[in-house]
Amino acid sequence: MSKVELLQVGPYPTWDEERLNASFTMHRYFEAEDKPVFLAEHGANIRGIATRGELGANRAMIEMLPKLEIISVYGVGFDAVDLAAARERGIRVTNTPDVLTKDVADLGLAMMLAQARGVVGGESWVKRGDWARKGLYPLKTRVHGKRAGILGLGRIGYEVAKRLAGFDMEIAYSDTGRKDYAKDWLHVADPVELAARSDFLFVTLAASAETRHIVGRKVIEALGPDGMLINISRASNIDEDALLDALETRILGSAALDVFEGEPNLNPRFLALDNVLLQPHMASGTVETRKAMGQLVFDNLSAHFEGRPLPTPVL
Ligand code: 8YV
Prior knowledge:
Elements: E1 4-8, H1 14-23, E2 24-28, H2 35-42, E3 46-52, H3 59-63, E4 70-74, H4 83-88, E5 92-94, H5 101-117, H6 119-127, H7 130-134, E6 147-151, H8 155-165, E7 170-174, E8 186-187, H9 191-196, E9 200-203, H10 217-223, E10 228-231, H11 240-248, E11 254-257, E12 276-278, H12 287-305
Parallel strand pairs: 1-2, 1-3, 3-4, 4-5, 6-7, 6-9, 7-8, 9-10, 10-11, 11-12
Helix pairs in contact: 1-12, 5-8
Residues 52-54, 74-77, 100, 281, 284 line the site of 2-keto-D-gluconic acid.
């Protein structure tokens, strides 16, 4: 029997590519020079899309695939998939929740600590010989005991808060309502109010059209010149122009960011700043988690084409 044909939107680690290639015919979209021509050539027989969180599948792509049945996302975020287009045609969508939650939270904490304590600058201080030449490294900011705000207390926000509790921080969160699993933490409905009472504001919201630019000028100004914004969700949750303006003028103290509009080609204004920590969208990037994510992508596709229930459906 011939193998089911899939569209592969972006590269995966070798172990995932080998497993997918063994079971499916993979059409490597990301290597095609002329993408519309590639879709016109191969689209007719493609029954599934294997994509990544940040790459998704837009309406134009979905419409070029008349036999499409399933979109399997390597990532928890499915905001880049046009769900309306999928729903209209009864196309299933899956993601990879849970397996990445703790790694994403770990990186959020690492970013806060690294940025507050100047870990990256400290290493340059040693390597550039400044320690011997100039003396002691400039003093940095304390983390423990400070006030943390979590914008979005879902799975990732909850794991961030749990870790912050270990640093004796005062924890508050904004979400659609009070969460019964967050009894020790203060619920603050308004994100501006949350920012105003935070030294460190973590953005851990699942992104959607409704949350676009939820962190805008008002939230950023409320966080203020001593505050730090940490984003481990999606760039669309933040008004990037407002953020850049505030960082440049020091209306906001600093930021630690793992995600950017137009990544990997981020706004060059970020590169000129000395009050940001920039990470290459790697919060889920451990071997252990990426292996589990790849397995789930494969398991969802296999289950669908073998007529079994999907392990982690979105639609
Ligand atoms: C990416 C992510 O999918 O989980 C998400 O939503 O954005 C990430 O895990 C990952 O970078 C692989 O591309």
